[in-house]
Amino acid sequence: MDYDSVEEAQRLVDTLTPGSCCLKVGKSLFTRAGPRLVEAWVRDGWDVFLDLKFHDIPNTVAGACRAAADLGVWMVNVHALGGPAMLAAAKTAIGGRTGHRPLLTAVTVLTSHDQTTLDAIGLRGAPQDAVARLTGLATAAGLDGVVCSAQEAARVRAQSGDDFRRVTPGVRPRGSAQDDQRRILTPAEAMRAGATDLVVGRPVTRASDPPQVVESIANEVAITVQAHAGR
Ligand SMILES: O=c1ccn([C@@H]2O[C@H](COP(=O)(O)O)[C@@H](O)[C@H]2O)c(=O)[nH]1
């Protein structure tokens, strides 16, 4: 839901049904529309992924996670780069709740990053090695999964098990623009690689017929899952 206006976002939501997909609210729409829009979509039955990627001192991140959980969202995330103490604080804030408990995932290496970016910011090794290190931190802290590129999904599953979610942005249907993403796969490739949740933004939001693109991605995913089940 990376739209510049609530009206545009709501226009797309009105063409979709909960169950066909989830809604991801990130920094741009949240900064514009705030928590009331998230609450309204939750009330309407949507699973909302609040993608605010909290990254701060442990106490602040814990407070932000509690606030996100109070909105009733389905999933919330933090940056694994915040380190073990911050991840533990986020886990305690969410895991210690009675009642609604959102899934808690950690961003490993942004899908817009490649080797050149990691070298520039001083993150050691290849992107897949940094993803593995940060997945180790998220797993040790008891999180529900990580955000990574689908290119690393198989390795994350091997490292942390089937139940540990692999949430994958950087998904691009064949023929669509790569934009600023660097580590990408198609929906079918992402499913085959072991992604559990596909994140698709601009290929949908910038399409002339967004609901048609959502349907076509859902079909591609369903066909891939069926083919996999038949093996
Ligand atoms: O590593 C990451 C983590 C989050 N994102 C977010 O996902 C969407 C992707 O949008 P596209 O338009 O499909 O590129 C966007 O909201 C990012 O903030 C990510 O891309 N990579």
UniProtKB/TrEMBL annotation:
The reaction(s) this protein catalyses: orotidine 5'-phosphate + H(+) = UMP + CO2
Coiled coil spans: none
Residue positions binding substrate: 2, 24, 51-60, 111, 172, 181, 201-202
Domain Orotidine 5'-phosphate decarboxylase as annotated: residue spans: 1-217
EC identifiers of the protein: 4.1.1.23
Domain of life, source organism: Bacteria
CDD domains, A to Z: OMP_decarboxylase_like
Pathway: Pyrimidine metabolism; UMP biosynthesis via de novo pathway; UMP from orotate: step 2/2
GO biological process, one term: 'de novo' pyrimidine nucleobase biosynthetic process
Keywords: Decarboxylase, Lyase, Pyrimidine biosynthesis
Primary role: Catalyzes the decarboxylation of orotidine 5'-monophosphate (OMP) to uridine 5'-monophosphate (UMP).
Subunit structure: Homodimer.
Protein name from the UniProt record: Orotidine 5'-phosphate decarboxylase
Originating species: Spiribacter curvatus
Encoding gene (name): pyrF
